[in-house]
Amino acid sequence: MRATTMHHITSGTPLTLKQCRVIQGIMRKGSEQSASAALNLSQSSVSRALAQAEHALGVSIFTRGWSGAELTADGEIVMATCDNLLNAIARVEQHLQQTADTALTLKNHLEWRHVAVVEAVSRLGSASIAAEVLGITQPAVSKTLKELENMVRQPLFSRLRHGLTPLPAAKSLAALYLRILPIAQSLSQALQSRPNELNGRLSVGMLSFSCQDIVPIAFASIFKQHPRVRLQAMQGPYHMLANALIQGEIDCFLGLLRTGPIHPDLIEIPLLHAQYALIARNDHPIHKEASSLKDLTDERWIVARHGTPIREYFETLFRSIDNKPPIQALEMLTFASSEDLVIHSDAIALLFYDDWNIQQLNPRLQQIPITLPKPDCMIGITLHRDHQSPIIKTFIEELETVIEAKITDSIPAE
C-alpha cells in the first residue's frame, strides 16, 4: 500500500525550511517575539519550530544574551547552513521573478516536499511515476505542484502525449533541490565532527572604573588559543550587571567587590588588591597647599555615581572629618574620562589603582600626598553559583596570569 505522507521525502534533512526561516529570523531580530512578527507567524509557532529544530539536531541553537537571543557555538554552524539554504532559494526566486507579473512567495513558504516533488516529476516525466517513487499518492503530488505554482506565479510543466515536460521554472526548482539537499544533509555530520575544543560564548560585564586594562589582555590570549570562543564585554552599573548575570545574559562581571553579592546565587572571587587614591593634575596647587582632608572640602570633585563603593568611600571620607560630602561633585562613568577631565580642569578625583597602575600613572597626573583612612579595596569577579563552565574557568586563569605579570612588574628590582 502506497504511503500517503510525505514525511520520508525529507529524511536526511534534519531541518525543515520553515525551521531555517525561524532560526534566521530569531538571529536577525534578536527574539522569538520579534521574529514571529517579521515572519507573520504566531510566537508559539516560532517557539515550537525552534524547539523541534534543537531536538532534531540534539543541540542548543540560541542562548539568552545581553541584547537578546545569541547563537551558541553549535548555533553558528546551524546558522551557516540555514543561510546557505535560504540564500540559494532567494537567488532562484529573484531569477524567476523576472518572468512573473506579481511578487513571488517562494522564500517565505517553500518546503522540502515542494522541491522534492518537482525534481522527481521533472526527472521522471510523470506525476504518477513520481508518486510511486516518492511513496505518496498522485493527488498529493498534484496538490504539491499546485502549491508551488502559486508560489512562483507561473506554470511548471507542459502536458504532452508522452508525459509532463518541465518548463524553465520547474528546471530551476529541480536544480535548486539537487544543490541544497547535500547542504542540509551534511549539517548533522558537521555538528558531530566539530573539533573537541573550547567553544561557546564568554560574555563579561565590567563595572565602571574597573579592570579596563586586564580584561582586553585576557581576551586576547583566549582569542589566540581558543578561536571558537565568542568574546563579549560590556560596561554597566552593579545592579544591572548582577541582574544580567542572574538571568544568564552575561557569564560574569568584574569590578570592585562589595561587602557581599546582592543575591544568594552569586559568588565573588577576589583577584587583585587596590587602593583608593586622590588624583589631581600634576601642576595643581593643591599638591603644595593641602596636608589633610579638611584642606580639600572646598575643591571640585570627580567621583563615581551614587551606589558604588567609590562613592560610598568618598562620602565616608568627609563624614570622618565631620563634614558633609561636597554636593558639587561631578559624576563620571569611566576611568579614562575621569582622568581626562582631571587633566583639563582644576577638579580632584577619587579613583582606585592597583600597585602597577599607580606606578604607570599618566605623567600629567599626580597623586595628592594625603594619607587616606582604610584605603584598601579589592577587585574581583562575580559569578553565578550554578552557571560556571570551562570557558569561565579558562577566563579566570587568564586573568590570574595577567594579574601575576602585573604584580611582578610592579615589584622594584633589588
What's the architecture of the largest domain in CATH terms? 3-Layer(aba) Sandwich
- Whole-Å distance between the termini? 92 Å
CATH class of the largest domain: Alpha Beta
Unreliably modeled segments: none
**String of helices and strands:** HHHEEHHHHHEEHHEHEHEEHEHEHEHEEH
- CATH fold label of the largest domain: D-Maltodextrin-Binding Protein, domain 2
What's the shape?
elongated
- Beta content comes to 15-25%
What would you report as the Rg, rounded to the nearest angstrom?
31 Å
Largest sheet: 9 strands, mixed
Query: Which structural category do the helix and sheet elements fall into?
Result: alpha/beta
Number of helices: 17
Q: How many structural domains does the protein architecture include? A: 2
Helix amount: 40-55%
Verbal overview:
- This protein has 414 residues and is of the alpha/beta class.
- The chain has 2 domains: 7-190, Orthogonal Bundle (Arc Repressor Mutant, subunit A); 200-410, 3-Layer(aba) Sandwich (D-Maltodextrin-Binding Protein, domain 2).
- The protein has 17 helices and 13 strands.
- The protein has helices spanning 17-29, 32-39, 43-57, 73-97, 106-109, 112-124, 127-134, 138-152, 168-185, 187-192, 214-225, 238-247, 286-289, 309-319, 335-343, 355-359, 390-410, and strands spanning 62-65, 68-71, 157-160, 163-166, 200-207, 229-236, 252-256, 266-281, 301-303, 330-331, 348-353, 365-367, 376-384.
- The strands form 3 sheets. Strands 5, 6, 7, 8, 9, 10, 11, 12 and 13 form a 9-stranded mixed beta sheet that branches.
- Helix 11 links the parallel strand 5 (200-207) and strand 6 (229-236).
- The longest helix has 25 residues, at 73-97.
- It is elongated, with a radius of gyration of 31 Å.
- The N and C termini lie far apart (92 Å).
